[in-house]
Amino acid sequence: MRVDDINLAHRLADAAGAAIRPYYRQPHGLESKGDSTPVTLADRAAEAAMRAILDAERPMEGIIGEEYGAERTEASCIWVLDPIDGTTSFVAGRPIFGTLIALCQDGWPMLGILDQPISGERWVGAVGQPSTFNGAPIRTRPCPDLAQAILATTGPHYFTEQEAERYLMLASQCARRRLIYGGDCYNYGLLAAGHIDLVAESGLKLYDYAALVPIVEGAGGRMCDWAGEPLTAESKGDVLACGDPARVEQVIEIFRSVDTTN
């Protein structure tokens, strides 16, 4: 991964943070989009700030953003932007949302930044390099048994009926009273830094997960879909993150066991 790509990603995160902070716990112009998801002036301002930099400095590279769509998607290198992942948390004044910035090459996530602009926390992952938190290397933690695992998800109500069955079966195997709800992208940062063990979600878009793959995997963890396949631009949006890669197959088998009993 080129140093200038990483430096550019940092500047994008800085620009997004500068656009977001004036709206935090202030009037933010909350609206509902056509798909009923929330959007604020901060979401739009942050993505516009990042796109302006990319249009000026990388006019031949593509952009996929949550708020302003896709352009130049035929390019080999595409920047994937989620200005505020966790808009509901942002609206509620909870500093557990984040700006997600990814660089994908031929559909594969190669570089990712997760930035929390209120607390000043920044995770960076790049293929071939150790992931960092505020500049210091981080590692996921070992999880010798699912019975000791802390499992997180944004919310079980986002699952379909079949997905909910799989999730509940997994949750039944994890540590009781250690299930975490809410947190969106922030949960993956905590996993990469060795504080929690598993994240399971579904219905995600590329901009929801692309930046997180290099961060988690560069810290020693693994991200895949619920069938165990690598996450790319073609993935359908069911996402599993494991801090300890040794637990991946165990989790996949739990998901399969639900399928075979239906």
Describe the protein's architecture and organization.
- By secondary structure, the chain is an alpha+beta fold.
- The protein has 2 domains: 3-137, Fructose-1,6-Bisphosphatase, subunit A, domain 1 (Fructose-1,6-Bisphosphatase, Chain A, domain 1, 2-Layer Sandwich); 146-261, D-Maltodextrin-Binding Protein, domain 2.
- 32% of the residues lie in helices and 24% in strands.
- It contains 8 helices and 15 strands.
- The protein has helices at residues 3-20, 41-57, 87-91, 161-173, 186-192, 206-209, 212-218, 248-261; strands at 31-32, 38-39, 62-65, 69-71, 77-85, 98-105, 108-116, 121-126, 132-133, 136-137, 151-153, 179-181, 198-201, 222-224, 239-242.
- It has an 8-stranded mixed beta sheet, with helices on both faces.
- A hairpin with a 3-residue loop joins strand 3 and strand 4 (69-71).
- Helix 4 crosses helix 8 (248-261).
- The longest helix has 18 residues, at 3-20.
- The radius of gyration is 18 Å and the shape is globular.
Shape: globular
Tell me the fraction of residues in β-strands, as a range: 15-25%
Q: How large, in whole angstroms, is the Cα Rg? A: 18 Å
Classify the secondary structure makeup into a structural class: alpha+beta
Kindly give the count of domains: 2
Report the major sheet: 8 strands, mixed
Order of helices and strands: HEEHEEEHEEEEEEHEHEHHEEH
CATH topology of the largest domain: Fructose-1,6-Bisphosphatase, Chain A, domain 1
The CATH architecture of the largest domain: 2-Layer Sandwich
According to DSSP, the number of beta strands is: 15
Low-confidence stretches: none
- What oligomeric arrangement do these chains adopt? single chain
Distance between the termini: 44 Å
The percentage helix is 25-40%
Number of helices: 8
> Quick check: average pLDDT?
96
Q: Order of strands across the widest beta sheet?
A: 4-3-5-6-7-8-9-10
Superfamily (CATH H level) name of the largest domain: Fructose-1,6-Bisphosphatase, subunit A, domain 1
Q: Quick one: CATH class of the largest domain?
A: Alpha Beta
